[in-house]
Write a structure and sequence with these properties.
Blueprint lengths: L1 E6 L4 E5 L6 H4 L4 E8 L3 E3 L4 E6 L5 E5 L5 E5 L12 E3 L6 E2 L4 E5 L1 H7 L5 E6 L3 E4 L5 E3 L4 E7 L4 H4 L7 E5 L9 H11 L5 E6 L2 E4 L3 H5 L9 E6 L3 H13 L23 E2 L5 E4 L1 E4 L2 E9 L13 H23 L4 H14 L2 H12 L4 H18 L3 H22 L12 E5 L4 H6 L5 E6 L7 H9 L3 E3 L13 E5 L4 E4 L3 H23 L14 E6 L5 H6 L5 E5 L1 H4 L8 H15 L4 E4 L27 H6 L1 H12 L7 E5 L5 H18 L5 E6 L2 H5 L1 H5 L4 E4 L1 H9 L17 H13 L6 E3 L10 H6 L4 E4 L4 H8 L4 H12 L4 H14 L11
Parallel strand pairs: 22-23, 23-24, 24-25, 28-29, 28-35, 29-30, 30-31, 31-32, 32-33, 33-34, 34-35
Antiparallel strand pairs: 1-14, 2-3, 2-13, 3-11, 4-10, 5-6, 5-9, 6-7, 7-11, 8-10, 12-14, 15-18, 16-17, 16-18, 19-20, 20-27, 21-25, 22-26, 26-27
Helix pairs in contact: 4-6, 7-8, 7-11, 9-10, 10-11, 14-26, 17-19, 19-20, 27-28
Length: 844
């Protein structure tokens, strides 16, 4: 028996190979070992030995000990496709290294943007050994023991193979990315199933078919011919099986897949209404009602010359254009609301993307113009985002096209011509870019309708922040509405009415006037406590996404912050924010709230919010993967830092931490232990601990969760998604994804019943911002609503118009209805006919 300690080659989080989302590694086809999710950017030798193999793409390297043990370090998954980009090798095959010697330097940012995952398997290849003391589910540093290997000296199966004549066969596989880890692992796994010694030859190199590392070291290029030679009792069967496997492509794509744009919404034909009305349906992106004149927006093409005037001239021209647009974005991002600033900050990050700049400069070096190079770079990046198959990422591609136009206008001497609007204009467009919307005169803009787009696009977010009704994904039929035509736009009803009848116009005008009166009355009483007509206290808090939003929210009537989305601190940056930086932001919000409650939601990363410094394993369905508190427990170091910052916040009011995407009491207990540790380390009183009810599992076990937490808050956005099995980022499902579905309301009812022991039960999802939903939620037993600041005054006003008994009646009716349409109609009627009331005295 021999013993070898294998040290960690990289700083990171160690985990089992079972967690690697690739069957070659998780299935131990290459061998057993440990995977490390890297936090450091260097790879070091795990023990003293010789470099056995260095992949041509420099993404994988193996070290062989003097006793013959070979360990493969494979950086990331699908990284062979990077063809060496992001990898710097400091060794060559055959070099002797000492334990801890530098092998590779990594550009983690570049690799993470293009790889399936950064997770790095550290695998002992071959067999005849036992692994012990595996370091898993904990942080490891370079040089720390990762696992211990006990080598069992045996003659091995190959030595006992019957001595028969060699069998040979040539095979020519199609492998665009070469013989990298996955196909090599499949060959090795198949070869081990035969009583034969199989060698694979390429020119003057030979490799054992059972050694994936040796196979990778052959230096195979697409189109090369391999020679299989076998000896032993199963020689012919082994050669035939391996030749068939290799000729079939080893499960690898025959060519790189072409990026596919997401499917567009099916064309919709307008309905014919009374008196010649034409009714177009779409997806509500921002609520509201408007009557006005249609103004068609057509995006003019920008003609660019492909040929440049010399690489030096074009490179300087591009740098000047980038600097001008960058400065313009910085100035624009210094003003306006938090949503506007965050969107412009994202544009700045795109503008400085090194890959896009490199692509543009490469085109310039090849003789292209700066404009041509920039357009090629942005469109390649946009195609990449669309190819992911995620609706939100596809919408982010529009931001790249926005930047494309801004730079092209700067390069060609053009200007972004704002659309001339008259009072009450309703803009119709195939789609809008964020910069185009921000250039419109908000005082003249009454509404936006687009053929394409989605409810989570930056244009939709901006429209909601501006208070402009928006209807998207109407389809190509929108082009049939004539420029200058009179239209009624009802975003709440998800429809645009062209050629409206006199009666339709009158109803819309009357509804708008009544809405304006209600809003004025609500704003006047926004600062008062919220009570039902019979005096039951209902707290109305604000959902916040940045420190700058806190003071305006208080001015709008917010009685506290019921949901601080801390993602604003973590997105669009290369490294995680430190404890002091987080504390400064949280403290600024607490100061602006002036003693009112502050509920800090821990980082909700993963899914549609990937972070470059928080690499996640590849997930076929991110919405069901490492999201919410799961991502926090996956990286407890980041979570502990956030909890320490939350503990250090000073406020005269309630301080609380809320956990997203909880599904079990065990998760809460793990965080409670971390919170207690954070409080002890900072010498502070721990804040209250609460959970978001966003999964059916949490809704059905709230009675168990309530005993482990201080408060409960229902996140209706994700709860609706999971209850109805509909992706909330898919614009085609948006019309059906309704939180007023009776199934969702029943889950809320069950959560309220189970939260009897908690300090309070609230709702912080988008349903809490809907006026018609407020009485139903109160009737279900909710005592706190956390809404967008713009809706707080109206939410308070509508709650004051109902007694608790009336709210309970509405809730019972809603629970018994067949679908959300019926619930909405019932709720709208109730709100419309309920008279304004003055609340009675407080009720205990």
């Amino acid at each position: 028996m021999g013993r070898l300690v294998i040290h960690s080659p990289v700083d990171g989080w160690a985990t089992s190979l079972d967690e690697v989302p690739d069957e070659v590694f998780s299935g131990r086809m290459l061998g057993d070992g440990v995977a490390v999710d890297p936090l450091g950017s260097t790879i070091h030798a795990p023990f003293a030995g010789v470099i056995g193999a260095l992949a041509r793409a420099r993404h994988a390297v193996s070290v062989r000990s003097d006793s013959g043990v070979e360990v493969l370090i494979h950086v990331g998954l699908e990284t062979v496709k990077l063809e060496g980009e992001g990898f710097t090798a400091h060794v060559a095959e055959g070099d002797r290294v000492a334990a801890g010697d530098l092998l590779l330097t990594l550009d983690l940012e570049r690799i993470a943007r293009n790889a399936v995952s950064l997770i790095t398997p550290v695998v002992v290849t071959g067999d005849g050994f036992t692994l012990r003391d595996l370091a898993v589910n904990r942080r490891v540093g370079v040089g720390e023991p990762l696992m211990t290997l006990s080598l069992e000296h045996s003659a091995g199966r190959a030595a006992t193979a019957a001595a028969v004549d060699d069998v040979s066969r040539e095979v020519r596989p199609s492998l665009p990315h070469g013989l990298h880890a996955r196909p090599a692992g499949r060959i090795a796994a198949r070869a081990r199933g035969f009583d034969a010694r199989v060698m694979v030859s390429l020119r003057d190199r030979r490799a054992s078919a059972t050694s994936a590392v040796q196979l990778m070291a052959l230096g195979f290029g697409d189109g090369d011919t391999l020679t299989l030679t076998a000896s032993g009792s199963d020689a012919r069967a082994a050669v035939d099986a391996l030749a068939e496997l290799i000729a079939g492509g080893l499960g690898e794509p025959a060519h790189a897949p072409e990026p596919q744009a997401p499917a567009s919404a099916p064309p919709s034909r307008p309905l014919e209404g009374d008196d010649g009305e034409r009714i177009f349906t779409g997806v509500a992106a921002a609520p509201g009602l408007a009557v006005g004149q249609a103004v068609r927006f057509v995006l003019p093409d920008i003609v660019v010359s492909p040929s440049g005037r010399g690489a030096a001239f074009e490179a300087e021209t591009l740098d000047l254009a980038l600097a001008a647009v960058r400065e313009r974005l910085k100035v624009a991002s210094a003003t306006g609301d938090g949503q506007r600033r965050s969107i412009l900050a994202a544009h700045l990050a795109f503008l400085d993307d090194p890959e896009m700049l490199a692509t543009a400069r490469l085109a310039i070096e090849e003789g292209r113009s700066a404009a041509w190079g920039w357009r090629e770079a942005t469109r390649a990046a946009a195609d990449l985002l669309r190819s992911i198959g995620d609706a939100r990422m596809a919408e982010r591609a529009d931001d790249l096209l926005d930047l494309e136009r801004q730079i092209l206008l700067e390069l060609t001497g053009g200007e972004l011509q704002p659309l001339a609007l008259g009072p009450g204009s309703i803009v119709l467009a195939d789609d809008l870019l964020p910069s185009q919307l921000m250039a419109l005169d908000a005082g003249q803009l009454a509404g936006i309708c687009t053929s394409r787009g989605g409810p989570t696009s930056h244009v939709a977010i901006l429209a909601a922040a501006m208070g402009v009704p928006a209807l998207v994904a109407i389809g190509p039929a929108l082009s049939e509405v004539a420029d200058g035509a009179l239209v009624v736009m009802d975003a709440d009803g998800r429809r645009l009415i062209a050629a409206p009848s006199a009666a339709t116009q009158a109803r819309a005008q009357s509804a708008m006037a009544a809405r304006d009166r209600r809003r004025a009355e609500a704003r006047a009483a926004a600062g008062d406590d919220c009570r039902t007509a019979d005096g039951v206290r209902i707290e109305v808090f604000a959902n916040l996404g940045a420190a700058s939003e806190a003071a305006p929210a208080v001015a709008s009537g917010a009685e506290g912050c019921g949901l601080l989305r801390t993602e604003f601190l973590f997105l669009d940056r290369e490294t995680a924010p430190g404890e002091d930086e987080q504390l400064a932001e949280y403290q600024a919000i607490a100061d602006a709230l002036d003693g009112r409650p502050l509920v800090i939601r821990t980082l909700d990363a993963g899914g549609d919010k990937p972070l470059p410094y928080l690499p996640m394993p590849h997930e076929d369905n991110p919405a069901l993967g490492l999201r919410g508190i799961r991502s926090g427990l996956y990286r407890p170091d980041l979570l502990l830092t956030q909890l320490r910052a939350a503990c250090r916040v000073r406020s005269a009011g309630v301080r609380a931490v809320m956990l997203p995407m909880v599904a079990s009491v065990a998760e809460v207990r793990q965080v409670r232990a971390l919170l207690d540790r954070a409080a002890a380390e900072t010498g502070a009183e721990p804040p209250l601990l609460g959970v978001m009810i966003e999964t059916p599992a949490a809704a059905m076990t709230t009675d168990r969760l309530a005993g482990a937490v201080d408060f409960i808050s229902v996140g209706t956005n994700d709860l609706t998604q999971y209850a109805l099995a509909m992706d909330r980022q898919n614009p085609h499902l948006a019309p059906q994804l309704d939180a007023l579905h009776p199934a969702v309301l029943r889950l809320i009812q069950q959560a309220v019943a189970g939260a009897a022991g908690a300090r309070w039960i609230g709702v912080c999802g988008s349903l809490a911002s809907e006026v018609e939903a407020a009485p139903i939620l109160v009737g279900l037993g909710v005592t706190e609503l956390s809404a967008t600041p713009a809706m707080i005054a109206e939410i308070k006003a509508v709650v004051r118009r109902f007694t608790l008994a009336e709210c309970r009646v509405l809730a019972r009716e809603a629970l018994g209805m067949d679908g959300p349409e019926a619930v909405r109609a019932m709720a709208a009627d109730a709100v419309r006919v309920s008279p304004p009331r003055k609340a009675a005295g407080a009720q205990s």
